Every structure is written in structure tokens, then in C-alpha cells.
Amino acid sequence: MATENKNLSNYDKNALPNAKDFRFGFVVSEWNDDVTEGLYKGAYDALIDCGAINENIVRWNVPGSFELIFGAKKMHEEVHVDVVIVIGSLIKGETLHFEYICEGVVQGIKEMNLMYQIPTIFCVLTDNNKQQSLDRSGGIYGNKGVEAAISAIKMIALG
Ligand code: DLZ
Question: Is there an atom of ligand 1 within 6 Å of 6 CB?
Fold first, then answer.
């Protein structure tokens, strides 16, 4: 597994631009909220640590990962932000539903990166079981939300 033996929370904030003037938009899925809240907390804390201010961070909730697509599109079109970060947790079940939703969400977010001038950062865990997701949302492998926050800062700085 790509993240095994890698701590997702490691970053060097001295190598990053200060985020104090950047505006961040989050769209967070409520499915598996023990995982998505961990991801959001990791991302939020990393942004604050890198200089972002609370007033410049907007958060919307949506019911499930599939709704991240519409939520992110609406945020791009209606809110003045420099980046949109989508947070979700898809956990494999016994049917093909997981595969279809994963495919739909990945394609939807990919298209948004082609459509808008502002980047959309993909922070959606796709795991075989809940433990794998917990391990990556503030557990033994760190927090993928932190990685998403650092990616967001780097993508804003890209211009
Ligand atoms: C229906 C569904 C299932 C089976 N599993 C998940 C999941 O693991 N993670 C997640 O974020 N959402 C799941 N959903 C809900 C869909 O994303 C969506 O909210 C519904 O299909 C309604 O459009």
C-alpha cells in the first residue's frame, strides 16, 4: 500500500509560503464522519500552523462523497476562495456501489480541475475497511488531511 510506512503528516512549513492571505474552501462528506472529521481536523490544524486565519476558511458539509462534486462546483461558483478541498471517506462494501461512487467522484473532481482556474484538492480516502481509513485520518499512518492542506498551499502558490 502506498501510504504504509509513510507518515502523511510530515511537512516542512519553512519551505512553504505563509498562508495568511490565502482563502480556503472545504466541502466535507458526512458519510463515515469519524474519518472525515479526523481528516478535516488534520487539514485545518495544518493550515493554521502554516499561517492561515480562521476567517479565511469556509466549510460546507454534504451528505456523502458523491455530493462532493456538486458541493465543490457550487463553492467554485459562489464563494471567493483560492482553493477548494474536498474531504470524503469511501469504504468498500459487498456490492459494486463503492467502485461506481469512487469512479464518479474521481472523474467529477478531475473535471473540476480542468474547468476552473482555481484548483480542487482531492482528499477522499478509498479503503477496504474502516481501520485502514482511521489509520490515515489521524492514526498510525498520520493524516491525509494534512497532506491535502499542504498540497492546497503549494497549488495556490503555483499562481
Ligand atoms: C451509498 C453510499 C455507500 C454505500 N457508501 C458510501 C461510503 O462509503 N462513503 C460515502 O461517502 N458515501 C457513501 N454512500 C453515499 C453516496 O456517496 C451518496 O451520498 C448517495 O449515493 C446519495 O447520492
Answer: no
Query: What would the pLDDT profile of 24-33 be if each residue is shown by its tens digit?
Result: 999 999 999 9
Q: pLDDT tens digits, residue range 98-112?
A: 999 999 999 999 999
pLDDT tens per residue across span 37-72: 999 999 999 999 999 999 999 999 999 999 999 999
Cross-strand pairs, 88: 124
pTM of the model: 0.95
The strand ranges marked E within the chain are 24-29, 57-62, 83-91, 120-127, 137-139, 142-143
Q: Do residues 66 and 104 make contact, with C-beta atoms less than 8 angstroms apart?
A: yes
Q: What CATH number is given for 32-158 in this structure?
A: 3.40.50.960
51: left (phi over 0), alpha (psi -120 to 50) or beta: left
Residue nearest atom 4 in ligand 1 by C-alpha distance: 97
- Compute, in angstroms, the gap from residue 106 CA to the centroid of ligand 1: 14
Q: SS3 for 47?
A: helix
